Amino acid sequence: MKKIIRKVRDAVQVVLLAPVKLPGKVLGVLKYVALGLGILETVLEEDEGQESPPAGKEEGHEGAE
Length: 65
Known about the structure:
By secondary structure, the protein is mostly helical. Helices cover about 65% and strands about 0% of the residues. The protein has helices spanning about 1-15, 25-50.
């Protein structure tokens, strides 16, 4: 999924940087798409860095008997 997001993001950036005349609304939509893809990619990277503790072994909780 990350690979697809990166490729779409790169394609959008190429279109935005290309010296072609596009209607203003198209450029506006492409800017929002690029922004959304950047946010989505950041969220996916942060999710990979966080690991949840295994079930039943939470931090700071000892078995109270």
